[in-house]
Amino acid sequence: MTRITISLPDEVAQRVAREARRTGASVSELIREVLSAELGKRRRRLRIIGLGKSGTRHTARNADAALAEGFGADRRR
User: Fold this and answer.
1) What distance in Å separates the CA atoms of residue 28 and residue 20, rounded to the nearest whole number?
2) Nearest of 20, 42, 40 to residue 31 by alpha carbon
3) How many CB atoms lie within 10 A of CB 47?
4) Cβ–Cβ < 8 Å for 27, 35
5) Percent of the chain whose predicted confidence (pLDDT) is above 70
6) Is the dihedral of CA 54, 60, 62, 64 positive or negative?
7) Which of 16, 17, 30, 49 is most buried by its number of CB atoms within 10 A?
8) pTM
């Protein structure tokens, strides 16, 4: 495990200490938990970027043509 030293505003340090006491965890354990959870959330959020990407530009401008093309393809089957 790597040791890291950080500086926190007094208010944040007090909140961390209170939460650690409330949960029965050490300050280090609490900070590890919170950081791991937050970094996991950020990773999940970043994975959704680009899911709706069509690969073409101006999709909104060409929506009618794209819909007509898509629905027309279904009717030809």
Assistant:
1) 9
2) 20
3) 9
4) no
5) 68
6) positive
7) 30
8) 0.53
